[in-house]
Amino acid sequence: MTGHALQVKDLRVSYGPKRAVDGVSLDINEGEIFGLLGPNGAGKTSTLSAIEGLLKPTSGSILIRQVDVRAHPGLAKALIGVQLQSTSFQSELKIREIVRLYAGLYGVPLTKSAIFGRLTEIHLGDEASRRFSQLSGGQQKRLSLLIATVHDPPLVLLDEPTSGLDPQARRQLWDRIAGIRKSGRSILLTTHSMEEAQSVCDRVAIMDYGKILTVDTPAGLIEKHKNDPNVLAVARGQVTLEDVFIGLTGRELRE
Amino acid sequence: MSSVSEPSAVRTPSVSPPLRAPALTEIFRALLEADFTVQLRNNRALLLSFALPLVLLYGLFAGKRGLALGDPQFRVASALTLGMASIAILGYAMTVARDREKGVFQRLRVTPAPTWTIMTSRLLVQVAAILAMALVLLVAADLFEGVSLTAEAYLLTLIGVIFSSALFLSVGQALAGLVKSADTLNAVGRIAYLPLFAVGLFGQSTIFGTTFELISRWSPGGTVETLLSGAMNPSSWNSDTWLAVAVSTAYSVVFAGIGIRWFQWGAR
Ligand SMILES: Nc1ncnc2c1ncn2[C@@H]1O[C@H](COP(=O)(O)OP(=O)(O)OP(=O)(O)O)[C@@H](O)[C@H]1O
Ligand SMILES: [Mg+2]
Questions:
Q1: Count of domains in chain B?
Q2: Among chain B residues, CA nearest to A1
Q3: What Å distances lie between residue B267 and B69, B128, B181, CA to CA?
Q4: Residue B215 within any structural domain of the chain
Q5: A169 CB near a chain B CB, below 8 Å?
Q6: Each residue's pLDDT tens digit, A14-45
């Protein structure tokens, strides 16, 4: 046992001629919450997609708990829980049926009352017979997090789990994420929020143009880059994580 | 609860992680249950795939004009063909395109379910829908239009229906493969009714001349109509019927090939 929930080595992903991920290496420890930061189009979702098996990397290796994703896709997918950046479910299904479907796909048959219990835990008990499209954005995010963890996976991948949430819902989701970690699982999440990175992540990577620029604890990143001239040029007073982010990735607007 | 002296290497999840990929039977049970539910709630597709062929059946037997199109078995086969075309286009291709656009497939694909099971489950549900439609139609033809089949013919017809559903569903697969957007597919789907159904209506008549009759007879719809009318009247089964079996197999292989080769799971 190396104690790694995820090991990514020299990952490259291309869409035709466009290279979206360009040599990314990451190690995520067991029980760790790891944040992936980067401007729009940096390659965060593409990196996650390769780990999830949604797209085939041009090169590189991915191990989830020592299981090679390409050699054993079925087993690897059983070890991860996924919340996609944008997702949807069959519009004809009620949300309790959606939970039942996904539990079944992971080989975790849930009884009616077990499903209702899980929905009640996330305050969706009254919505059990509604359709996904009838839920609010925050309710949709809660449901997709529930589905991502329905099989208690050792590694959870969350792509912008709190985007579009109000401050209350965001705090609640942070608590849930912390709760997932407490039970020994590891989390890889992407976010555009520096506050989120600082308050929930043990370690953070900043990526841009398909490459990881730096990895450390949030405090470590500030410490490491606080004297970088690019960072100092954008800082207004004491150097913050956002100053480091903008200093390293530049001021121009992305796609 | 904070762990005091527990070394992180032995910290274990509260629930033991699933260290196995789920069995295919578990995956299929979950997928089939969901896909059947979706099918039963898809009112538009249900209505069209059951009501359209019944209306056509009535129309083909109501006046004298239906007689010009062909014998009673051929006319029942035409109604069956319309039902199969509707299920393949509306029940299958359209829902696949719509779900793809919404990202439903990408969410399913990050589960341990192998991708072929996701499609196979949907196809099985459509075959079941086609069989149900065929039974309703054959019973209606018997009760209201006096087209009764021997037990042997019944069996042969249902086998023929399952066989032809391969052709129609592979056309549906090809449509979903070649046309990416659900809106475009909605339009293209209407046009697809022509080769799949309308052209074949004239496979037994020379109303539009002999060249058109030939095209009509060997169009996808016409081929299936020949095959099914042969099955409904086994004593009339001849070399043309066998040829129809071969031609519809060829259609299925070609369209399935196109549909699998060009299919994309994501909208982007
Ligand atoms: N299916 C696709 N086809 C072509 N190019 C793509 C595709 N998906 C992503 N890209 C491109 O790859 C690059 C990386 O995109 P990706 O979605 O991984 O970025 P991201 O870091 O997740 O961005 P965001 O913060 O906006 O979600 C971008 O330049 C994007 O335009
Ligand atoms: Mg993204």
A1: 1
A2: B9
A3: 43, 28, 8
A4: yes
A5: no
A6: 999 999 999 999 999 999 999 999 999 999 99
